[in-house]
Amino acid sequence: MQELIIYAFLFLALLGHCLLAGTMYRKVHADEELSLTEKNFWKLRALIFPLLFWFYYHQEKKRRSS
Q1: From first to last of its 66 residues, what are the pLDDT tens digits of the chain?
Q2: Cβ neighbours of residue 54 under 8 Å, at least 6 residues apart?
Q3: CA pair distance 63, 66, nearest whole angstrom
Q4: Burial class of 10 by CB neighbour count within 10 A (0 to 12, 13 to 18, 19+)
Q5: Which of 5, 1, 17, 29 is CA-nearest to residue 42?
Q6: What's the CA gap between 62 and 65, in Å, rounded?
Q7: Distance between CA 7 and CA 24 in Å, rounded?
Q8: What pLDDT was estimated at residue 17?
Q9: Rounded Cα–Cα distance for residues 46 and 24 (Å)
Q10: Quick check: 31 and 39 in contact, CB under 8 A?
Q11: Is 1:7 a contact under the CB 8 Å cutoff?
Q12: Which of 13, 27, 51, 56 is the most buried (most CB within 10 A)?
């Protein structure tokens, strides 16, 4: 039973990771202000730690707009 709980938690973590990475990937791809190199940079980061780099991406976007 304990093994099932661990697998369920890992599955939910993987699912959340994939959803967040996909969301960030789409947002970065739709951003017209970024160059191709910058888009690829943020897309690769989204695959590693999507939640952390989502906040960094928004901070960078706010910094550029001001």
Answers
A1: 999 999 999 999 999 999 999 999 999 999 998 999 999 999 999 888 888 999 999 999 899 887
A2: 20, 23, 24, 46
A3: 6
A4: exposed
A5: 29
A6: 5
A7: 26
A8: 93
A9: 6
A10: yes
A11: no
A12: 27
pLDDT at 66 (0 to 100): 77
Task: Please name the helix (run of DSSP H) or strand (run of DSSP E) that holds residue 55, with its range, or none.
Answer: helix 50-65
Position of tokens 């039973």?
A: 1
Q: What's the length of the chain?
A: 66
Structure tokens at 28: 């970065």
User: How far, rounded to the nearest angstrom, does the alpha carbon of residue 13 sit from its chain's CA centroid?
Assistant: 13
